[in-house]
């Protein structure tokens, strides 16, 4: 049986480190503050909102909620993000996704100050992930993957990595962050031939797609580490990962579960960004 890479102990370690930094800020009269912006009531957004509020309360990070009707347009969201950006009492902003279809994401994100973009949605934050300098923050989920690998002593230096999925939220920024750490990375997507064969060659496989149970036994071999970033709801609302967990866990060396793996760390990475923003802006 493989080693299960749970996210909870990783998140708790990170929170322990953050508590000291938050205490220092509060001694200076600064309370790290997150603006949480939601349009409508998407179930996934509501779930992430609840988990974010719980972690903020545990750490002593203040939250300001900006809740917009589902019918809100691009300019209404942009107006809200501009107001948050201009408010010196707010250090970070989390615009919840997905957005309603009538909103132009690119135009909305352009209204958010990169210095407060703690979830890495602006062009400036993506530029930081790709070139390693500039304002903003890298997307939280790729950083959470790196924290998970570091905690469980899975080195990237010299490793062969296969990433399934090329989104700007996970796949592409993660590929760059891993390359900087001296991994050799292949990114697979819907047009990649012989995907399973490519995965079998890798030391580390990271799956970040919208397909339940994509990674089956023919994708893996003994000795591999599988990081499952997928969180796909079924018809009943139950979350599933990209890995067929029960089928491949007896084969690989280590695997992260869904739920309870990378997702358990992502919110804490968001809190780290809020604290870093407070430190920079104060």
3D structure, described in words:
Helix 1 (8-27) packs parallel to helix 10, helix 6 (140-151) crosses helix 7 and helix 6 crosses helix 10. The chain has 10 helices and 11 strands. Helix content is 41%, strand content 16%. The longest helix has 20 residues, at 8-27. With 282 residues, the chain is an alpha/beta fold. The chain has 2 domains: 28-118, Leucine Dehydrogenase, chain A, domain 1 (Rossmann fold), CATH 3.40.50; 140-263, NAD(P)-binding Rossmann-like Domain (Rossmann fold), CATH 3.40.50. The relative contact order is 0.17. The strands form 3 sheets. The chain has a 6-stranded parallel sheet with strand order 1-11-8-7-5-6, with helices on both faces.
Task: For the structure shown, list the relevant keywords.
282 residues, alpha/beta, Rossmann fold, 2 domains, six-stranded parallel beta sheet, three-stranded parallel beta sheet, 16% strand, globular
Compact overview of the structure:
The radius of gyration is 19 Å and the shape is globular. The protein has 10 helices and 11 strands. It has helices spanning 8-27, 43-59, 74-86, 105-109, 123-131, 140-151, 171-180, 195-201, 245-248, 263-281, and strands spanning 3-4, 33-39, 62-68, 92-95, 160-164, 184-188, 204-207, 225-228, 232-233, 239-240, 254-255.
């Amino acid at each position: 049986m493989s080693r299960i890479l749970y996210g909870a102990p990783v998140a708790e370690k990170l929170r322990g480190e953050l508590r000291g930094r938050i205490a220092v800020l509060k001694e200076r009269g600064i309370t790290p503050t997150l603006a949480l912006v939601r349009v409508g009531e998407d179930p996934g957004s509501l779930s992430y909102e609840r988990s974010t509020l719980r972690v903020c309360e545990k750490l002593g990070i203040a939250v300001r909620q900006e809740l917009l009707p589902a019918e809100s347009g691009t300019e209404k969201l942009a107006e809200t993000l501009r107001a948050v950006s201009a408010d010196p009492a707010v250090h970070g902003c989390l615009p919840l996704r997905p957005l309603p279809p009538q909103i132009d994401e690119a135009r909305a994100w352009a209204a958010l100050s990169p210095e407060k973009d703690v979830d890495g949605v602006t062009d400036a934050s993506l530029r930081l992930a790709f070139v390693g300098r500039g304002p903003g923050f890298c997307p939280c989920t790729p950083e959470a993957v790196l924290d998970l690998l570091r905690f469980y002593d899975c080195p990237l230096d010299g490793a062969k990595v296969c990433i399934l999925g090329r989104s700007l939220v996970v796949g592409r920024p993660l590929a760059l962050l891993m390359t900087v750490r001296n991994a050799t990375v292949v990114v697979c997507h819907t047009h990649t031939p012989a995907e399973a064969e490519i995965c079998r060659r890798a030391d580390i496989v990271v799956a970040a797609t919208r397909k339940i149970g994509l990674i089956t036994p023919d994708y893996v071999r003994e000795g591999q580490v599988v990081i499952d970033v997928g969180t796909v709801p079924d018809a009943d609302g139950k979350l599933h990962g990209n890995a067929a967990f029960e089928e491949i866990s007896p084969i690989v060396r280590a695997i992260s579960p869904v739920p309870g793996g990378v997702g358990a760390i992502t919110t804490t990475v968001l809190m780290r960004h809020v604290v870093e923003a407070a430190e920079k802006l104060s």
